[in-house]
Amino acid sequence: MNKELEHRFVTELENNQNIVHKVCSLYTNDKDSHNDLFQEITIQLWKAYPKFRGDAKFSTWMYRVALNTAITLYRKSKKRVQTQDYDSVIHKIKTNEYDDTEEKRLKLMYDAIKQLGDIDKALVFLYLEDKDYTEIAETLGITEVNARVKMNRVKNKLRTILNP
Predict the structure, then answer these.
(1) Which residue, 151, 142, 137, is CA-closest to 60?
(2) In Å, how far from its chain's centre is CA 48?
(3) How many domains does one find in the chain?
(4) Residue 90 domain-assigned?
(5) Which end of the chain has fewer CB within 10 Å, C or N?
């Protein structure tokens, strides 16, 4: 590969690396797994970059590669590394005037999202990233109508999980 291509890739990766970190956070439970997945996604992005035609935005293409890589690795391993329970470490960051209500709600929401299937998890992730249904559909390789229908079903699943 030539230096110009390499430079463009590195620049795009640096500008959009938060996408990869967010995907890693969604599909891993600890720092080492996060770093391993980040590295694997970066490798897959680099391998696929010469074929990136620019038909979609780089970030959309990056979401697709990152999510596909995470889902593929998750399905291969089917292992979940147990991490330290959130409640056992919350006292380390609490202060007297700190209101952790929102943090607890977010934790409940992320716990519920982690119970979803791979595609549903990716769908919610993109939705929470404020992607419109056109971009969600393009990223996941489904129709826009299908993305809307799936999202409504996922919302109902999440309601059931959060309000048993």
Answers:
(1) 137
(2) 19
(3) 1
(4) no
(5) C
